Amino acid sequence: MIDLLAYEKELYSEGYEFIAGTDEAGRGPLAGPVVAAAVILPKNTIITGVNDSKQLTEKKRNVLFDIINEKALAVGVAFIDNKKIDEINILEASRLAMMEAIKKLKIKAQYVLSDAMPMNIDVPVKPIIKGDALSESIAAASIIAKVTRDRYMDEMDKIYPEYGFKKHKGYPTKAHIEAIKKYGITDIHRKTFKPIKTMLIEQISFDF
């Protein structure tokens, strides 16, 4: 049984009190933003059911989303849109989203645990590989980020109903790729991601 507070307990023992976990959602989709969250939980808080958001059902994530927001000392959320992703690449956009989410915390973090993301900020950062399955704080952030992004994509589904965003949230499913081929590229699509990038190159070649 993994102790999801192991990293936090070690930091508490060193005198840190406000430990933020941070994670992002939306690295892989062809459309929409990458969303990051940062969460500071009260000392030694365990929220039953909290785990890597990808391991939870949508219903369970939604329930935990409310509980985390209720119990957390501070929650910060940041969106980096598709245009910025195309400009700086998805890795840097994910890093920027996490840094922005940390800045939005109403309590300044004394230490940050991140899901495998090094960051150059004014407090110590410990990147943990698979951190969303190993740290309560990071897992809580992963749930906030995932639910926030999914709800945003549900809203995009109302604006672009032909694309099925409510079902696939912008990920590269067969149905999504077929919709792009049929209806074209929208303002929220990432133009540097394949197969969209390939489609644009082919379109330019065809135009010439």
Summarize the structure in words:
- The chain is of the alpha/beta class.
- The protein has a single domain (6-207), classed as Nucleotidyltransferase, domain 5.
- It is 45% helix and 14% strand.
- It has 8 helices and 5 strands.
- The protein has helices spanning 6-13, 58-71, 82-88, 90-103, 136-159, 165-168, 174-183, 196-207, and strands at residues 19-25, 34-40, 74-80, 111-115, 125-128.
- Strands 3-2-1-4-5 form a 5-stranded mixed beta sheet.
- Strand 1 and strand 2 (34-40) form a beta hairpin.
- It is elongated, with a radius of gyration of 18 Å.
- The model has no long low-confidence stretch (mean pLDDT 95).
Name its key features.
single chain; 208 residues; alpha/beta; Nucleotidyltransferase, domain 5; five-stranded mixed beta sheet; elongated
Principal-axis shape: elongated
Can you count the helices?
Answer: 8
Q: Could you give the count of β-strands?
A: 5
Across the major sheet, the strand order is: 3-2-1-4-5
End-to-end distance, in Å? 61 Å
Range of strand content? 5-15%
CATH class: Alpha Beta
Look up the CATH topology: Nucleotidyltransferase, domain 5
Helicity, in percent? 40-55%
Low-confidence region ranges: none
Structural class: alpha/beta
CATH superfamily: Ribonuclease H-like superfamily/Ribonuclease H
Q: Based on the structure given, which CATH architecture is correct?
A: 2-Layer Sandwich
**Rounded to an integer, what's the Rg over CA atoms?**
18 Å
For the residues shown, what is the average pLDDT? 95
Order of helices and strands: HEEHEHHEEHHHH
Whole-number tally of structural domains = 1
Main pleated sheet: 5 strands, mixed
